[in-house]
Amino acid sequence: MAGRACLLLSLNHQLIALQTLRLLHQQDEDARHSEKKEACGSLALSNPDGPGAKDSREPGPARPQTLTQIAVHSMLSRIVASTSQLVSVEQTLLLPLFQEHPFPIHLKDSVEFRNICSHMALQLEGQQFDRDLHAAHRCLRSIVEKLIHSLAVSPSDVYATAKASLRQILQNLPEM
User: Residue ranges of the domains in the chain?
Assistant: First the structure.
């Protein structure tokens, strides 16, 4: 496959993964908001002293979130942000530079990343979702690391800004 077409295809797979991740993140946010709303409504119904009585309990989630749930939410948020940054770097920096100075593209990683994100969308929660989230993290990290390596091989300093941007993505993507 021609170089530019390969880069565009890789970018397309990452855009699909990003859309899926954003939907997952939005569903997670909606569920959190819904739980808080239900908790506030059930507080009014459970007040034994009547509708006018003051309840000293603070409204909160109907079910307390575990540390695992908080960690998963945080990780999902960071993966969404990092994927968004990666797509932006590829669209604004790498795509224009690629025409002048081609570099190797690893399409397989982008396909795998898209597939993992699609599989996550079918799980929504649980152990398999957690495993897929970790796999998405590893795959995203691999994509960024391989891009940095591909750009490092180039003798040109044209890629300095792109390499710095990719390194920043790696710094923002937590170790697991």
Answer: 3-22+67-172
